[in-house]
Specification:
Layout: H1 2-20, E1 23-26, E2 30-36, E3 39-45, E4 49-52, E5 58-64, E6 68-71, E7 75-78, E8 84-95, H2 98-104, H3 108-128, H4 132-136, H5 163-177, E9 183-195, H6 197-267, H7 271-289, H8 303-311
Antiparallel strand pairs: 1-4, 2-3, 2-5, 6-8, 7-8, 8-9
Length: 312
């Protein structure tokens, strides 16, 4: 009885193992192939849900059905016009035929390595076949001039291919080399480009020289304008001072004339006032022409002598 129970338990365990080993589940992100002794059996399994296999004899290899990422290494590449640049690239790819993928590449690690060879090689070929200007520009759009000095900068030459087209060329040629691998490259892009240190320093020096030239031109134009403004200022100042001096002399002249008229009208009223005016004018002349150290010689008919004689 005990042996019978043990046998039933063993049979149950074996049946359970057989049942659990006879199917596998695929979700929406997976696809698989079934292998027997390392060789594929049947068609690839791509539909999500329950799939069946021979227990213990068959094994399942799962592959991702989603878009996968490829990130290239940063490489130093020469352009057609002998400019060395660092190029960093990336791409997106997918497994389109899991059976062919398994036969040729086995797993994703091998696929990444194979894509490194293909995409890096096609990138080098594409860059070496085009000038730097074609690689960094996509269109012949004229640059937007936001400052006056930008009109002085060097005008870029027109391109015939452009960066976008070069990316498409790399993508097309790379897909031609992956048709028998069971994969398809969906997109390829240049992530970053930069000059090598030596070339970058020369470019920076050229940019600095160009900006210094523009700055010198601005300073020269500014100094010229400053001299014009300074000359206008001196001319206007001299004109203002001249007109002010002329107006002041005219005012003084009119004032003296009015004062003379007032004096004349005041002193010409009678003989006494006339004599008083002459006397005051003579005394003012004495005050202005003589001091304690002055000696004069007067004739008897001099106006000065006449008043001095009266004082005695």
């Amino acid at each position: 009885m005990r042996k019978r129970k043990t046998g039933l338990i063993v049979i149950g365990v074996i049946l359970t193992l057989l049942i659990f080993n006879s199917y596998f589940i695929l979700d929406e992100t997976e696809q698989a192939i079934v292998t027997q002794f390392g060789k594929p059996v049947g068609e690839p399994r791509t539909s999500p849900g329950i799939n069946f296999k021979t227990p213990f004899l068959h094994k399942v290899q799962f592959f991702d059905k989603r878009y996968l990422e490829w990130d290239g290494d940063k490489n130093q590449v020469p352009t057609k016009d002998k400019k060395f640049i660092f190029v960093d690239t990336y791409a997106r790819w997918e497994i389109t035929n899991p059976l062919q993928f398994f036969i040729r590449l086995r797993d994703e690690r091998s696929a990444q390595s194979r894509l490194d060879d293909i995409l890096d090689g096609e990138t080098r070929n594409a860059i070496a076949s085009h000038d730097l200007l074609e690689i960094v520009r996509s269109t012949n759009r004229d640059p937007e001039i936001t400052e006056d000095f930008m009109e002085e900068l060097e005008i870029l030459q027109d391109i015939t291919v452009g960066r976008d087209m070069i990316e498409k060329i790399v993508l097309e040629k790379a897909n031609q080399r992956t048709t028998d691998l069971g994969v398809r490259i969906l997109d390829f892009r240049f992530k970053r480009m930069n000059y090598v240190d030596e070339v970058r320093d020369r470019v920076y020096d050229r940019m600095i020289s160009e900006r210094n030239r523009i700055a010198d031109q601005f300073r020269s134009e500014g100094q010229g304008q400053a001299r014009v403004i300074e000359g206008n200022k001196e001319r206007d100042l001299a004109k203002i001072q001249s007109e002010a001096f002329r107006e002041a002399e005219e005012i003084k002249g009119r004032a003296d004339a009015e004062a003379t008229d007032i004096y004349a009208s005041a002193y010409n009223k009678n003989r006494t006032s006339i004599d008083l005016y002459k006397f005051l004018r003579t005394m003012e002349s004495f005050e202005k022409s003589m001091d304690e150290n002055t000696s004069i010689v007067l004739s008897t008919d001099s106006e000065f002598f006449k008043y001095l004689r009266k004082l005695n």
